[in-house]
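ok so i was messing around last nite and threw this chain in just to see what happens. nothing serious, just curious
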Amino acid sequence: MLSPIAVYATVATIAVLHMIAPDHWVPLTLISDARKYPPRKKYALSAGIGSSHALLSIILAVAVLVGGTLIYSNFMAISTYLAASLLFIVALYFAIEGYRGENTGSGIHSSSLLASMVPDPAIVPFLLIAYADSSTELYVSIIIFTVATIASLIAVIFLASKGLKAAMEKVGPDKYDYLTAAILLLTGLFVLLSPNF
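result:
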């Protein structure tokens, strides 16, 4: 059983790890630059995307909690493995997209734009742990996850405006999917290796 502090730290770490993946910030950076958005609008858009991502992740966790416990009484015990497996499958998808992009020269894929709104399954087992402990721990975990998600995306967008984007351009857009796959794989391993139930 994780202490509340460990749950909070894990939730914040997952939010940060997940939001540094290029599939969240590269499309936003490209759109903001193409439309010449001022910094205030770019950061407001980042906050909106981060909020939407966090909200969808929380909705996913609630749906998993309700549905999973109705179907399988010991669902919470396997939720970590299910979340990590889903992350590994999505990582494999991005690796395949990266390979396809190298061979077609198509650059950034529609998968990168879509992934900005896809909920984060890595958070599900930890919100379930928080729920099992107390409603207060669940609410605090949700707040921490939401704030860390928004702050991480804004920070990465800020860093992109200060040179991260130029560094990523040297890597080339055909490698973004590989980097996203690596970060998702790392997040999945973090979820599996984190002490839980």
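not much to say yet. Residues 4-193 form one domain.
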